[in-house]
Amino acid sequence: MLKKDQTYISELKHHVGKEVTVKGWLYNSRSSGKIHFLQVRDGTGIVQAVGVKNELPEPIFELAGKLTQESSIIVKGIVREDKRASSGFELTLTDVKLLQLVADYPISHQSTHGPAFLMDNRHLWLRSKKQHATLRVRAEIVKAIRDYFDSNGYVLMDAPILTPAACEGTTNLFEVGYFDEKAYLSQSGQLYGEVGAMAFGKVYVFGPTFRAEKSKTRKHLTEFWMVEPEIAYADLDDVMNVAEEFITFIVHRVLENRKEELKTLERNTAPLEKINAPFPRISYDEAVELIKKAGLPFEYGNDFGAPDEEAISKNFDKPVMVHRYPLAIKAFYMKQDPEHLDKALCVDVLAPEGIGEIIGGGQRADDLEYLEKKIAEHGLPRKAFEWYLDLRKYGTVPHGGFGLGVERAVSWICGSEHVRETIPFARMLNRLYP
Ligand code: 4AD
Ligand code: MG
Fold it and tell me: Of 88, 267, 321, 400, which is most buried with the most CB atoms under 10 A?
């Protein structure tokens, strides 16, 4: 147990009328000469502490007046209810202790800083209201993800990050030296999730994944978190059923538990409140029709770009599940649609409000010969996949799953402009600092 000589701002409601000690930092302040208004933050919230000249010992009042942004302080005060305050409470200041007086904090409330500057100061920017709110929503989403799978009979299965081969194509692999061999940072834990499904029936892999993406879009990171359920004896329809129930669960959890944060982010929650299973399901062919109807040039057979995804998803106010893409543009492990041999039994879930793909998944190729052929076709080294092929030799069954990109989901739910704000320390083409 944490020792309790402090009260967290989130707990002030239990201490109305009493004197409390808040340990934190000065977020902001103003003064009318006779009254100092200190915005104090402690990580759980921000509360205003009001210091009145006539009611405080002279040195304390003076100290309160010279505090600078992010100075570390311990304040004492009496808790008062205040409907106008965002926290619902205010402190009447009785004491201030200064731990460090900060000079020249780089991020000011007055000036508007550009994104490059803010990302260079990410280690400090995280203290700002909106960044703080975004990462609290992220934490809620991660918890919701775990709760959903843990309470629905899935076993958590950790996949390795150092892997011998590519899973999602060879063009964006990070290669690392591994003693006398080469290893690759995992692009997806799926193949190991398939091992898990054959051993445990239902599993989920959850961890960081890596792609050497040379693209500078608002959706791409080089290191991102993915959660990947994998289910034995599941077909494409089962995968879509799980995906829509899972997304609905997460969105509702955030709406329930993170109202304050969504308000801080000025997120209009009306579109999120409409998110309920079932989601619309359309085929790739039908999606292409929607792109054509929107007047965009599109060559049949290609993958969708960001404008294409937007043209598709704007027809729906829920996430739309696009299934059966051309086999030729998809990963080697996809199962061929027996009814349309040029198509894969796969699905992408496109979120509304211009977000685009948040989930990719589908049914897996379960036939040994077919998979051997695909591995060769994709120019992948068979030796590195022997273990994977064993799954098709020893008790192969239909199975499938999907991967949700955590940052894309957070970005959608928070209404963030860029995924870089949805992970504590973004890794991108031009960013490895801090
Ligand atoms: O569609 P992807 O590539 O699918 C897979 O990796 C499958 N193995 C998943 C599975 O079936 N188990 O990636 C899945 C999701 C995407 O829909 C997207 O949300 C996210 O991962 N994602 C990225 N997020 C941020 N930055 C990137 N560079 C991303 N690439 C994929
Ligand atoms: Mg994809």
Answer: 400
